[in-house]
Task: structure prediction
Amino acid sequence: MNGRTPGRQLPLLQVDRAPVRLSVLDERLRGTKFVSLEPKSVLNSPQQTGVDFWSLNPYVGCEFGCTYCYARYAHRYTVERAHDAGKLTDEEFLEFRGPHGWEAFERRVFVKETLLGALERDLQRYFRSAGPTVHPPAPIVIGTATDPYQPAERRFRLTRQLLERLARCEGLNIGIITKSPLIARDTDVLRRIQERSDLEVHISLNTVDVALIRQVEARSPMPAVRLRALKRLADGGVRVGLIVAPVLPGITDDVPHLEALFQAAREAGARFVHAGPLRLYSAVRDRFLPMLDERFPHLAARYRRAYGGRTGAPRDYARALAARIKKLQARFGFPVNQRMADRYGRRLAPAQAELGL
Ligand code: SF4
Result:
């Protein structure tokens, strides 16, 4: 971020009947804009999302730009809904979506600036919904749709603020998912959370191959940097592990690849390793399949066949991958068959998918 245009006003959305001009908080040289958003609510309940946990995402959109990212749909939905409701002009809508439709997710990042006030109201709702007899409370997962430690967090510190607030609660069950080493900045507050609540940090990494990662993730932190952050957290006493998701069939699912990840996780002090295969949601296809055509043309037709009209990978692949992961978990001394589903319920444990599509 270069701070060239702080506070510049951009006519974007209307709230209720009065048009509201949203501030462009910052802008990068390559064109990414960070736009202020004032949500009424930030903690999504299981009823709202259809999953078994509460979710929290301080940002909408993510600069890391992974080609397989399923969260693009949420950003697209937000922008399309605003356009359909007449809150974005056609011109603004086009500018937001970019030439292919998926660019906006990486280039127009909404910053939930007033997150703390909304969280305060949401926590009351959360504790009310738990009631006096529900124990332990439903998990809260931070980073389900966008990375809570993406580069914007360095400046806006929203994730830090919300963690500070959650550290004052007791008996929560909190998960955090990130690819960013910036999370190590918050080791102190994570430790405070752990004193009163159950916490698991998931560092997301699907290969240690630097060249390969740049093929599938546009601007994510390098593997060594993520593993160093994992080690810093582990050394700092934070319960942290590795999440290998998505495993990309035919690209990152071979034994040497996975072994290298498990080995690196072991050396960094990870407590667990979870893994799950790619889910090819429709919003992912627009971005991921052209990438395959260009960079892995030998796999393109096989992916299209295997994923056909489905989101999850074929069942045989799922079984084979699950068996491979279990063996590696055992060999490297991690809890075997532990899946994110065991802790968070549906959706965060991707249905397993086909070795040899
Ligand atoms: S880091 Fe996560 S949220 Fe960001 S683009 Fe990659 S998969 Fe999506």
In short: The longest strand covers residues 18-27.
